[in-house]
Amino acid sequence: MTHHSSSFAALLNKRLIVMLPLGFLSGLPLALTSGTLQAWLTVEGVDLKTIGIFTLVGLPYTLKFLWAPVMDRVVPPWLGRRRGWMVLTQLCVAVALGLMALTNPKLHPGWLAAYAVLVAFLAASLDIVFDAYRTDTLQPHERGLGAAVWVNGYRVALLASGAGALALADYVGWQMTYLVMAAIMVVGVGVVLLSPDPTLVAAAPKSLKEAVGAPLAEFFSRPTALGFLAVIVLYKLGDAFASALQTAFLIGGLGFSATEVGAAKGLGIFATLIGAFIGGLLMTRSGLVRSLLIFGVLQAVSNLGFVVLALMGKHAGALTAAIVIENVTGGMGTAAFVALVMSLCDARYTATQFALLSSLEALGRVFVGRPSADLVEVVGWTQFYALTAVAALPGLWAVWRIRRSIEPEQKTASQTAVMEPATLPVSK
Predict the structure, then answer these.
(1) Among residues 238, 176, 210, which one has the least CA distance to residue 399?
(2) List of residues 6+ apart from 205 with CB closer than 8 A
(3) CA nearest neighbour of 165 among 118, 228, 101
(4) Is 12 left (phi over 0), alpha (psi -120 to 50) or beta?
(5) Residue 14: exposed, middle, or buried by beta-carbon count in 10 A (0-12, 13-18, 19+)?
(6) What is the pTM of this model?
(7) Taken in order 80, 85, 86, 90, is the CA torsion positive or negative?
(8) Residue 33 DSSP symbol
(9) For 188-241, how does the pLDDT look when each residue is reduced to its tens digit (9 = 90+)?
């Protein structure tokens, strides 16, 4: 393992470098169908009830596993199974953003909603194939750092399509802003054309039936399949609990102003980037299992910062420290988690397996909001944040239980690359 980590420079190669712009392209459409779109609708004077309906636009992101098998099965006639889909879906996202730009929200809110759903569907599809490409392209020892570089690109895109788009709209208007974002997606096709071919090239499933059934059958044929699922669901659970009501706690519970919280969260974004990067670098030295355990412990401990904050009350320094520490450790945990999901995918069905596993992890985030609120009412904020640290422990226990099965996953992935020669799909 050490010869891989002799120096940071030795790690920098085309496979890793391309992860930054691809991560950016993956993240760009997200805010344009959520926060930025809400801002546009509000400025145009669209009523709140209508805006509320627009929040459902994000659904495709949680349901993407439903059509991921199609992207494993169908091989476009250009650039192969992964890069072919990347070019196609990216151009479609650009066109759909263009349609949003040319729609007046006051006159045609229905059409704008339809186009926003289309953008979300296409962007979720782009994520499916990006995740598969990243998994098939990075070597096992590069996955942690590759995931970190990717997350950094993604976060920068969220800033560009969030705060950046809002600032731009003040100067050039909303329609022009959305056209600029569409143009960036078109230019991004160049990145895909320059990207290296995947390292692992396996034959596509023979039929759609195989593409749907085989990824599940393959996954559950593994002796520790349930253990892997437990880790996927539980590993980020403490984090999900801690962030579910964070804004409500800081503004409503402690009396910070929205501006103070916004500034601290802005710092938090950069802290996440640094955390993911540090995590990725450390993983090249310490391997996946050790990283998952160490970063998981740090994630749990970081939640205690909010216990301290709850005890101290409104204290600007403590607020900044709690948010920065939580985001640094969260970024480290995310890098390890993404590397784990990548290591669990079979090269034949990467798109489907990755989409399924990441949707499972998202379920935790979606469902913790309500129970969190009930818990706070019963025990108060201080105990609540102490309990979020405890909620991180089952995930760590699950990692420890299956630690021996995690590393072999990495080895089998690199062996399949050797065993299966790069096969091009035979046209019937």
Answers:
(1) 238
(2) 69, 72, 73, 211, 214, 348, 349
(3) 101
(4) beta
(5) exposed
(6) 0.85
(7) positive
(8) T
(9) 999 999 999 998 889 999 999 999 999 999 999 999 999 999 999 999 999 888
